[in-house]
Design goal:
4 helices, mainly alpha, 96 residues
Length: 96
């Protein structure tokens, strides 16, 4: 199962990271301030009025989830991988 997750992560992350190397992971899950960071994301989305603006914010959030995932995997922390992958998928679906 771990090997399958690893292969999936590589297949999903590498092309996106190569295309968008400017996305920073910032605060990652497990950090005491992560909840606050996510709260600011929700507030920012709520204050965005246009559908195009909301889609852009969701795409940025999806990109950030992948950057967080990559950082955690590089650090050897696989605790939040499933959660971050699910959130990435959800943000992409909502951006549509």
């Amino acid at each position: 199962m771990k090997i399958l997750i690893g292969i999936l992560l590589i297949a999903l992350i590498l092309p996106i990271v190569n295309a968008q190397e400017t996305t920073s992971a910032g605060i990652t899950p497990g950090n005491a301030l992560y909840g606050l960071d996510r709260a600011f994301e929700r507030i920012s989305l709520a204050l965005t009025s246009s559908n195009a603006g909301k889609a852009d914010r969701r795409l940025k959030r999806a990109s950030e989830r992948l950057a967080e995932l990559l950082k955690l995997v590089k650090d050897g922390n696989n605790e939040y991988t499933n959660e971050l992958l699910a959130e990435h998928k959800t943000e992409l679906q909502l951006a549509e």
